Fold these 2 entries.
Entry 1:
Amino acid sequence: MTILRRMRVITLSFFNLIIIQQAGADVPVLLFVSDTEQGSLEAPLLDTDVKISINGITARVKVNQKFKNTTDQWQEATYMFPLPENAAVDHLKLIIGDRIVEGEIQEKQQAKKTYIAAKQAGKKASLLEQQRPNIFTTKVANIAPGEEIIVRIEYQQEVSYDKGIFELRFPSVVGPRYTPLHQISEGLITIGEDGFSQTLSGEHILISPVIPPESQRKNVLTIAADINAGIELASLESRYHDIIKQKKSQGHWATKLGMEDVIADRDFVLTWQLKLGQEPKAAFFQNSDGEDHYALMMLVPGNEVFKEVTRLPKETVFVIDTSGSMGGASIRQAKQAMALAVKRLPKGDYFNIIEFDSRYTTLYPRSVAVTESTQNEALTFVNALVADGGTEMSAALHKALDNQRSGSRVRQVIFLTDGAIGNEHDLFSIIKDKIGKSRLFTVGIGSAPNSFFMKKAAEYGRGTFTYIGNVEEVSEKMQNLFSKLSAPVLTNLQVDWPEDSQVEMWPRKIPDLYQGEPLIIKAKLKAPKGAVSISGQTRANLWKTSLNFGEQKNHDGIPQLWARQKISSLLDSVYEGADADAVKRDITALAIKHHLVSKYTSLVAVDKTTARPIEEELTSKEVPQHHPKGWLHKRTLAYPKTALRDDLNIIIGLSLVMFSGFLLWKRRRMKV
């Protein structure tokens, strides 16, 4: 790539970011440039109201995004926001006063054209697009001066369950993401047709303006949840927010945030536990849609299945993220978790530690035996870690998954990070190619981790995901992880369906289970009769159980959850050699059938009435968001301190942007 071409990429995207290559540096520097305070004030105000209805192991969620134009100009608002990575988004409504405009599902490019045509014609419209399975953007066109417009998004999701605890998480903020910018010098970052910078894989680089801490502006969040467990609860709590609880009946509770003006700067996590002895062994839900029959099964093998066997020696490789985005509370949580893990290593095992930012460093050239001496060296190493630099994760992953020796040792890689990266798919490819006999366990750190990356990485690595949201949870969460790692695994799981069922089951390959983990299966069948049987093998015992179709009640939302799982599996199949164009066609058809937002489909709502006079100018503004709680912030830069060493970089970056603009202007003059 020539310097001129490289500069052109920079110029076209400089309003969002500055990219510079320092002399002698291994990687370019990425600075996320935020709006000025004045720019933030001009953007539409945003309030988010969330209503959650939980029945059993499924939840129906309605998210109302209220945009208020406080200026004297007509505005278009763009807002990037997170949702749970397993959310099946199936409805969009544009609410204008008393009028409600229903959204339609369309192929992504067609939906974009529909929205642009409505915007240019002066009609009120909204477009909902997926940028990642857990990150979406809302666009709202033609908000009149002083007007409020509500965009309602609805989705279905399953509730997570682990070691007796149900958990539902609603993320409220997207932390700045790092994209390895060596890709620029290799020509792997381009400008898409929509003006967004994107990688060769077509994934947009995720950038959003940030609200400075001293700003009076607030993105206010309200949440209310209705939990109908059907069985008496032993506990109900929110891990990171104060809540008000009200018991409505046996096993039925209503909750809401306990404070007004809660800002959207961290994940909302609600957990509940059933009364002792009432833990589920199985949950089975079904739904009929014409000739198709859909089933959702959750099975929890009892503790008696995982009987103690001779403990196998282990090799544990810890990988800890020390990049700038881990600054503040996150690095303290990570270091405390690491120290606790090192102290618990049993004598006779082997271990190593890899820390990474713009580069990686290993404690030892290769894994060493656990002794008092090596543990002390490790604790000293961990105590000296600081958060700074870029999130160059790929080299650290390669190193962690190398040197897999044959033998009897079980090899476990424990990865502590906030996952603040934008090149998830590149990293998934590394894990799938190199996982070998290792198992990868991800530990999410901070108030708003990238749970899509963390969960999918653990899935590819045949491990599990653990989330630590604050320092007080480190001991509890790491203890649960250690218990899981020491428990035998239920492997070779097999599902036998009734004959002539014509089953399409997801996931196709059932993962291994650790003690306390549920087996969750979604399936589409034809006229199922009889029972489905499930079996698996521990190191010492054979386990088998069955569930009867005739005993199950009808439950809404199962087809959407099945379709969402199938879409995820189809995307995964591309890594295994499936034809990308064929996968795109299959996903598009499936998403349109089930009215789902996906990588290739979007929801668009257009009002029939023309609102803005054509002669009136329309200004476009990105709605800024808060930094995740605990993250560091600079006044003029909103970035995860990624690869930024000193303020001289700012001057160099601005100089390069101006110089690149001059070169582009000169080139255009020469063409004329």
Entry 2:
Amino acid sequence: MHLNSAFIKRHKGLTLVVLLLLATAGCIGYRMKGPYRSYYLDFIKTGDGSAAKTIQVGVALRDITPDMDKYDTFVDVDNDNAYKPASGFFSFFSSLRGPDSYVDRNGNGKFDAAWMTGFTTDRPAKGVHDPIQTRAIVLSNNGLRIAMVTLDAIGMFNDKVIDLRKRINPALNIDHVIVSCVHNHETPDTMGIYCGPIPTPWAFDNEHMEGVLNACKEAVEEAAENLQPAEMYCVTRELAPEGFVRDSRLPTVIDTQLHCVRFVKPGTDETIATLLSWGNHPETLGGKNPYITADFCGYWRDGVEKGVPEPNGVQGLGGMCLYFQGMVGGLMTQLEMEVPHRDGVRTFTEDSFEKAEALGQNLAIETINALHSDRVWKNERPALAVGAKNIYGPVRGIFGAAVMTGLIHPGIFWPFNARSEINVARIGEVEILTVPGELYPEIGDGGIENPPGADFYPLDPVEVPPLRKEIMQGKMRMVFGLANDQIGYIIPKSQWDAEPPYAYTPEGQYGEQNSLTPELGPLIHRECKALLDRLHAALNRKQAL
């Protein structure tokens, strides 16, 4: 016993290191295994009942704004809205050292912050400018029931989506739940990659995430209980990019389609809900804003529901507005772009709430005018169909290394593949395709290039024909991005440009560092085409009966 004690004392440091390594290995192993290992989707459902001319629709929302009183405050000495501490764990790294300190409200010895997303990992929220929400719509017809959820968040990994689906009351008989984040860069971290100067799984705000999941569950369940008959009116507005969106990466390919769907009580002009889809990053406040906000999305929804005041305003439609993100890869943004005020006099270029309000209200005006135009058509037979399939793809690079070690997106499948999913849905003449990340519009609508200098030059475009333009069917075709997962940018392989000499600019362009692999674009295109083909074949068989 004496010898053992002496040995332990002599090698105490080594023992602690070994125990720490074993604990770390165990944690990584657990994360690499991931939850819901046996969960698997592969189905097409076209319903077993006859379709009514009116569809059953229900909507609901929940607030997901964090209570800032539960978080520590920090003293931002240099007022740069970034946390760079003078002491503590983070300050051990010289690049993170700074003059800041924090007020430890609960006395746990660590800085508990609502970390903002999308730009840097050292941006703690200082407060709330306006609320953020999750909104759900449930559709029911011909023996099928589909729920679609949109939330003010940067993204949500697939394991959390599965968790949400499992929480929903099975007695509601919902056949499938689609979850899409608007990719808001001014909201608390829901992915675990922005939670502090050095993000770690144990720094992730699990309490906030739990609140978000429960809010989504409650919104879906309330929407299902609110089902009522509705007529469905649709219009697609070709929206010129000027003043709305720019492509910050060459080649310039922008999704100009603003999709608007309005559900009204039969035989009336009373709105139950409007469903909108368009592609643009909600990042109008930029990377220095310390206040949580719904960005232009909130102003857009409010404008559609309540109206936009004079001058040059419009009357609101009422009901509930739901915005689903579109194709934002490539990269769609309003940063460094001039946005006009509706008064025709003022313009906004710098990051500001005024700019976010102007963009959102301009979108609301375009939406309402489109839904009042003579181009609106009625979806006469809104029969439902839905399909989903898990996909597995290789990972590499910095993003991939984080996935492979389970730091983010837990769950690795043989041989070093990540699991994700794609979905399709049909509502009469409206077809929806969901992709688990930020799809480049080139893959959806065409325009893929292979410039000299690209990593795979020469290479003919791989992701052809374009998904929305040529493969999808229906009078209205929507692509929901950031849906059921967030696996980064989905880049055409022939445009992959990570190594010098670069194709478009001497210094290269942003994108590849936040993509899993150059094979991701071909994989997503191939799997989406296959699932769409299966949906169309199933619908054709049903129609032939």
